[in-house]
Amino acid sequence: MSAPAAHHYTTTGLDSRKIAIWAFIGSECMLFISLISTYLIYKGRSIVGPFPHEEWTSPDGRHFEPILDIPITSASTFVLLMSSLAMVLALSAVQNKNLPKRTRGERILGSSKLWLWMTALLGATFLGFQAYEFTSFVHEGLTLSTNLFGSSFFTLTGFHGAHVTAGVIWLVSLLAIDYRRGLGPADALNVDIAALYWHFVDVVWIVIFTVVYLIE
Amino acid sequence: SSLAAAFNFITTIINLRAPGMTLMRMPMFTWMSFVVQFLVILAFPVITVALVFLLFDRFFGTQFYAVAAGADPLLWQHLFWIFGHPEVYILILPAFGLVSEVLPTFSRKPLFGYPVMVYSGILIGALGFGVWAHHMFAVGMGPIADSIFAVSTMLIAIPTGVKIFNWIGTMWQGQLRFTSAMKFAIGLVALFTIGGISGVMHSSPPADLQQTDTYFIVAHFHYVLFGGSIMGIFAGIYYYFPKMTGRMMSERLGNVHFWLNFIAMNLTFFPMHFSGMLGMPRRIYTYDSGQGWDTFNLISSIGAYMLVLATAIFVYNFFMSRKRGEIAGSNPWGAGTLEWTIPSPVPEYNFAVLPTVTSRYPLWEGTEKDAESARINSQEGKSSEELGIVLPYSTVKPMIVALAMVIMFCGLITTMALTFLGAAIMVVALYSWLLSPLEPEHH
């Protein structure tokens, strides 16, 4: 991000960019609400399998197990949740950059580079899980065009994955700036905005995980 | 891009108002635009999803709209109209806002019932999300859904009707000046009312079963879109042309434009009420004669040609006035709001001195401080450097990002290689833009 703008008069006392990111998140909510609603409308209406939670035998005798793997996806959900924790620590490190750090623990918690890396890597790990899941589903016979479940599942989780990817790129960009000139309290707003986006993407995943994987 | 503009307007209106400009002192055009931006951020993602489903069905073989695979035949319609209905309020509310600026100026009276006008605008925006399936009364949703949407549609007529009465109240016993802008604003009040009357006729599902997909509907929406939005836009152009260009449009030509437009518009669209009631369907390219529609359609055609003539006169007036119009000055209309305190055309920095607002019509009701700040702000010819005002750098980078997005989307309907090329240019341009400083260093 560019160097922060000087502080101008504002009606609310908040930085304008904070308000803008919330408006953006509002529109993203509507995007995901539409995708999730479509998934819910089409739940249970696929004519042919594979199905998410029940087994199915095709007319030509092939047998399909329920295709969703709850244990593995629970692990990837945990990874994404931990990435949000790392993001909180990264923001705190940036905000408190100039405070003295006397103990090793304080130095670890206060390293913005460490926590930005952790957030990006955990996010990338989540994407790795998604890539594995997508390829194994395709291998097992579920594609975008197989049935309503395939269409709505891949579109919904694919859009979410694209948003996570954009977030990881954003985090790596912040890291590049941190390496080049360092991120300090003056950059706290920019990191806060990235954090808001990252937490939003995490919350969307919680909803998707609940609606798609946990509810039968 | 609609979304990006919406984020900008929402942020600006929430956070960058002048000192003393409380929400309830804002001009009505600003208020209505504010409501509209919320409609934009909530409605546009829904049509995005609807179109993504269509795109994916066509290019990736998904089954979103494939009835044979069990898809809901109504999914497209629901998604589209959840966008489509708020969209028509997006189209009309700014026009309402413009009328609420124009009528007070040319009645020399403040807007009647300002708070009610604000609340009704908000209510129209909010209720506008609860009426969408009135576009689907003929698809067989069932009596419960039909009833709910019938009631919500009838309800939304109330805040709209309230505005009509408040506009009449504004003009009542005012000193009326019938400039071109004023004529178009009054035209909206009259013609939108007609469009609203046919609209409320559609709100009854059994009645709509006859009206839907006929020219009766076409008559309705052209009255609200042409008689409403377009009239409001013309009013706004005649009103703000002096502020934007520093010159006046020809009132003589504006008068011709208005009357030709008003008569032609009614000639074109009023007969459609009748042909629609007589059963003429929508979306046909030809029809058999002798069904009772011929004369009505002939009148519509004549009216349409007249509209072309009227619009040509307007376009000529617009471009001619830019070169040879009378010089306008900062407040040619004697209006009351802040934009009329600054020079025409408006300097880059807008206000030389940030005004402190104490009323809705600072030039009419303001204190001595308002008059003083108006005097300072109306001085011409000062550059931003002279005034010590820091403006952001000019840069072509946003345009390159936009152009790259165009290339990306063209690739979606031609070849994927273009999409990747556009995406690559966009990423490079975006980083270049974001990493360059916004404005010169200052303290």
Description:
Chain A has 216 residues and is an all-alpha fold. Chain A is built from 6 helices and 2 strands; from the N terminus they run αββααααα. In chain A, 34% of the residues are buried. Residues 1-6 of chain A have low confidence and may be disordered. Helices cover 67% and strands 0% of the residues of chain B. Chain B contains 16 helices and no strands. In chain B, α6 (180-202) runs antiparallel to α8 (215-245) and α9 runs antiparallel to α11 (294-324). The mean pLDDT of chain B is 95. At the A-B interface, α1 and α5 of A face α1, α2 and α16 of B.
Estimated share of beta-strand residues of chain B: under 5%
Which percent range fits the helix content of chain A? Answer: 55-70%
- Please outline the major beta sheet of chain B: none
Structural class of chain A: mainly alpha
Structural class of chain B: mainly alpha
Q: Termini separation of chain A (Å)?
A: 43 Å
First-residue to last-residue Cα separation of chain B: 32 Å
- Specify the number of helices of chain A: 6
Q: Kindly report the spatial arrangement of strands forming the biggest sheet of chain A.
A: 1-2
| Fraction in beta strands of chain A | under 5%
Unreliable sequence segments of chain A? 1-6
Q: What average pLDDT do the residues of chain A reach?
A: 93
Radius of gyration of chain A: 21 Å
In sequence order, what are the helices and strands of chain A, one letter per element? Answer: HEEHHHHH
Helix count, DSSP H or I runs of 4 or more residues of chain B: 16
Using the alpha-carbon principal axes, give the shape of chain A.
elongated
- Element-level helix/strand string of chain B: HHHHHHHHHHHHHHHH
**Radius of gyration of CA atoms of chain B, rounded to a whole number:** 25 Å
